[in-house]
Structures are given as C-alpha cells and as structure tokens.
Amino acid sequence: MPVPARLFILLLALLTACRPAPQAQAGPTATLTVEAARVVAVPPSVKETSVFGTLRNPGGRPLRLTGVQSPAADHAMLMVTRTDAQGRTGMQMTDALTVPAGGELVLSDTGDHIMLMGLRAPLREGEPVALTLTDDAGGTHTLQAPVVKP
Q1: Any idea what the Cα angle at residue 44 is, between residues 39 and 47, rounded to 5°?
Q2: pLDDT band with cut points at 50, 70 and 90 for residue 31
Q3: 88/90 Cα distance (integer angstroms)
Q4: How far is CA 79 from CA 21, 95, 109, 144, in A?
Q5: Residue 40's beta-bridge partner residues?
Q6: 123, 115, 137: which is closest to 69 by C-alpha?
C-alpha cells in the first residue's frame, strides 16, 4: 500500500522532531586553583611588575596556559627563567606554561612567572589586581592577586 507523499513528509518531520538533541562536544572543563597569588608592589614610576603564586590543576589532563591579560596593564606575558650552560640566568617570554595534571606550577621570581607591562596606574599595596589566564582549549581562568611588597 503506497504512502501518500504528504503523509510520508509529515511522518519524517515527526520522527526528526522526536530525536534527542545532539550533545555538546565539549570535554570536561579544566579547573585551576590559585594559592598565594600576589603582584609585586613597585614604585609609582616603575611601569612593570611580576605576578607570583601557585597554580594547581586537580584535573586529569595537563593545563597549557597560552595567554594572560589584566586590566591593570597594557600587556601581560607568560615568562620563563632559565640558566644556560655558562651559568647565566635570564628570563624570556614564552608561548605557554603548563600546569601538570594533578600537579602545580609555582610562579616565582626565580622561575616561571607572569609579567605585567605598561601599568596603567600606580598599584597600591593591598589592592587586588584581576588577571585572566587563557588555556589552549579556549578556557579562561580569572583570579585576583593582591599587591604586596617584596
């Protein structure tokens, strides 16, 4: 028995409407916790400073941080500090810092850290500075770090 075209189209539309909606393909959201975050206080004439603290990743996958921004500075950078074979220590900008799965990344004056360049206003001791870290999965992680004397 042939099915009239109109009935066939109606049945097809009903079946399509009753299908479950597709699920988002996003993976688990990476979390990042921060301890002892701080921005180093500098004299008002100095236009750059550092951010230190400990970033913890309780997740099961490494968290690769690829960017940082702050409304307190014109520009922020992820930095690494390394000592070469001749014993010279220097810092340089890096494209990424990785917080290991289930581990931590310590940001310090002798290692990896964040630099704030072109401070837009003098920072006052105790003032919170907002930072937004971006990871390579497109996630963002915001934190507040108080300004403290070194």
Answers
A1: 65
A2: confident
A3: 7
A4: 44, 8, 10, 19
A5: 148
A6: 115
The H helix count followed by the E strand count for the chain is 1, 10
> Each residue of 32-91: pLDDT tens digit?
999 999 999 999 999 999 999 999 999 999 999 999 999 999 999 999 998 889 999 899
Distance CA 114, CA 66 (A): 12
66 near 99, Cβ under 8 Å? no
pLDDT mean over 79-108: 94
Q: How far apart are the first and last CA of the chain?
A: 87
What is the separation of C-alpha 87 from the centre of its chain, rounded to a whole number of angstroms?
31
Strand ranges, E, within 2-139: 33-40, 48-57, 63-69, 73-83, 89-93, 97-99, 103-107, 113-119, 128-135
pTM of the complete model: 0.78
d(C-alpha 51, C-alpha 37), whole Å: 7
